[in-house]
Amino acid sequence: AMVESALAAFYSRSQRSPEEMLGILLTHHDDAFMEWLIEQSPEGSATRHLLGGLTGWNRSLYKRVLTLSRVYLEEDKQSAYDRIYHMSHGELFGLVDRLRVALSSALGHPLHPASLIFDTPPRDKDKLESIELIYPNARGQRHYPLHQLSRIVSGVQHDFIRNPRSLDASKPCPKPKTSSWERSLLPDQDNNLASLHPLLSLLVGVILLTSLAGCRTGASPAGECKPATAVAAHDASGEIEDATFVAKTAAKDATTESSGAAPTRYEEIKREAITFESRGATLKGTLTLPVAASSERFPAVVILHDFGPIGQDGLRAASMGVELPVEVPVYELLAEELARSGVAVLRYDKRTCVKNAAPRCDYPRGHLESARDDLAGALVDDARAALKVARDHARVDPRRVSLLGHGQGATIALALRREGGPESVILLAPSVQPIDALILHQTMTSLALTRVRREEEGDTAVGDLLDKQIATLEADLIEQREAFEKVRGGKVAPSEQIFGMPASTWSGFFSLHDKALEDLGAPHPKGGTLAVFGGLDLSLPPDEPRKMEGILGERTAKSRVEILDDVTHDMVFVSRDTNEAPSLDERLPDLIAGFLRAAK
């Protein structure tokens, strides 16, 4: 607000033309622009004083709060739109509204006019990153500046913009790589402002992408988001004349099925208690099934747990950096929602869920102690036994049983995939790091978070306690590095205790995960691989989704990566509305069910 106020005051005093004002904005980077703005503010004014106290981080915010529509007088804003987009303000927003109507039809549900907002026009001559499309959806407002374009399009096929000179639907849509695709739409940096109209074609595409990213399966009458192709029409001179969206009805793409039939929704589900034997232990579980009048068999998923003593409900009260006010039964909620989508789900108490280890855990200690020397192998055997139980059930299609691995469970799912066991694998918060590197990352992250909290706490008793925690974490980090190097180098006896477990146990997990990573990129002979990451996951390095995309290769219906915003490592959605209780992210069950239908 201060930046806008100072600019508006300067504009009024200087009587600069819109072109001159735009030139000033385009020729200054953040710091230089802010210094220039401070100089233009009256000596001793509150504006100059407050602007001078902004930090470097605050200064970057000017791009978000400054829009020429607020700086220019109304009549000058009209000319700005005409110059940059080759259409008036009214014509541009009339086009946007036509896009909204067409997109509403394509998605199967109405979009409010406020759902598509422009933040205009460009103010950065080097990256042209200042045009933003704002797409407010059910989970809060999303901003998509152009410099994030490569991240946005990485998960979607590039065929949503047709040849700008032709509307011949019989011609195949081009699918260049992201970098060349971006360059083909962005104007040359040396061009004058009048050449920026191709950006509107780009924004048409971003509208589609962000809308599809924000929609929920179940929003349309068919129960799933319908894909759409943006089509831009041009006049003889190449100017944008109109644009619309055309719903796809033919070939499959990376996110949808070719069948137009709506998936069946089962309102009634049932739960069956299950027990099975594995390595001398009796494991307890629950099979959640749709209730159907016919004797049809359903596809099934077996849930494999994350690290730690976790029961079949998957109760989670916290993830790294995120404390939840209530426990969320992640696996139970996921099983129920998948069952309503026609997928049977088997979940069971993990072998390590022994008495006093965690809530609702009541296995005897022998379940853990008998397998301590080869815990990784025992967990794989348990998952193999659970997979057989699911296949043998009378209401399950034995050819369509998949594994859903969460965290550590993702490694076990990949180990069984290597054997040709499951039809497909769904990996929730998987790591492409070696186990020891991942643990070191988590310790360093805990240390960083504790240090931040210590700075905020000040000179208090809590601060003293945090000092002790920091010292402990620093010592742990050194000890972990040394211990893991010994285990990797075979310089420790198998029975030697390393952080409460024999060295052989650590070696087993290291080996299991390393082999899983080696095979991760191999084609799956049966179904496919879906990897899902949470945007609030601090347990994994932030570049894990990008690395996973590189391993899986080209995104297809049977192999892809998804990132869910505002979701923790445990797939819990944390609302920005403090009145909304945390729960399983509602997008996840639909995402998984759609993937299983496409991968069959």
TrEMBL record:
<dbReference type="InterPro" id="IPR029058">
    <property type="entry name" value="AB_hydrolase_fold"/>
</dbReference>
<dbReference type="InterPro" id="IPR053145">
    <property type="entry name" value="AB_hydrolase_Est10"/>
</dbReference>
<dbReference type="GO" id="GO:0052689">
    <property type="term" value="F:carboxylic ester hydrolase activity"/>
</dbReference>
<protein>
    <recommendedName>
        <fullName>Serine aminopeptidase S33 domain-containing protein</fullName>
    </recommendedName>
</protein>
